[in-house]
Amino acid sequence: MLQLERVSLSYGSFRALDNINLHAGAGELVVLLGANGAGKSSIFLALSGIHRTSGGSMRFDGRELGGMKPSQIVQAGLVHCPEGRKLFPAMSVEKNLVLGAYVHRGDRAGSQRTLEELYQMFPILREKRHQAAGSLSGGQQQMVALGRALMGRPRALLLDEPSLGLAPLVVKQMFEVIQRINRAGTTVLLAEQNAYAALGIAHRAYVIEGGRIVMEGDRDTLLKDEGIRKAYIGG
């Protein structure tokens, strides 16, 4: 469903991605592991059309993404939930959520159904729907960010560091929700530093260092790899 071949991306003279090759099949949950600055977010920014690549090919369902506008990419079914949540803190929870359905503004009934499904998934957001998003706890704000992405009705979801800054119990709950979304049929590409939690729900994973893929494999292979354990898990 999602295919990157020899993708490169530069910020001025800095080469953030260097000949990246990766894929995520329909219904897969694929994890990107790497330290800060490794290139995980750059992959997502390239896929979502925010930063232009300097080489290679990115395809979604066989359709070339290069040159497409971010709104066209969302309409195609590929939706990005960014690192750091990027909410509008002074706006209400519900307004933040509804913004995620902007590309489907001609289908208000469908967006309302999706919103109701989100409130069933995250009951606390229904309770706080009229509160400013910035007044919520970190975990609740992450729910809003994820919910906003789901309002775009993705067939493939790009999740960038959803556990960042969250308490362990909230991380566990968030990963259970991500796994549920994937099991319902949505392909997920998940960038994470929390390797143990991410690999626990993944089908496959890639390790990125210095803008290059240095390892790939199924979850059990990477969990057993001594180098991965020392670098990302411990012990």
Q: Helical region count?
A: 10
**What is the succession of H and E elements?**
EEEHEEHEHHHHEHEHEEHH
Structural class: alpha/beta
Biggest sheet features: 6 strands, mixed
What fraction of the residues are assigned to beta strands by DSSP? Answer: 25-35%
| Beta-strand segment tally | 10
- What's the rounded overall pLDDT mean? 93
Give the CATH level 1 class of the domain at 1-77 and 189-235: Alpha Beta
Radius of gyration: 17 Å
What is the topology, as strand order, of the major beta sheet?
A: 6-7-8-3-9-10
Helix content: 25-40%
CATH homolog superfamily of the domain at 1-77 and 189-235:
P-loop containing nucleotide triphosphate hydrolases
Shape: globular
The appropriate CATH architecture of the domain at 1-77 and 189-235 is 3-Layer(aba) Sandwich
C-alpha termini separation: 35 Å
Q: CATH fold name of the domain at 1-77 and 189-235, please?
A: Rossmann fold
Low-confidence stretches: none
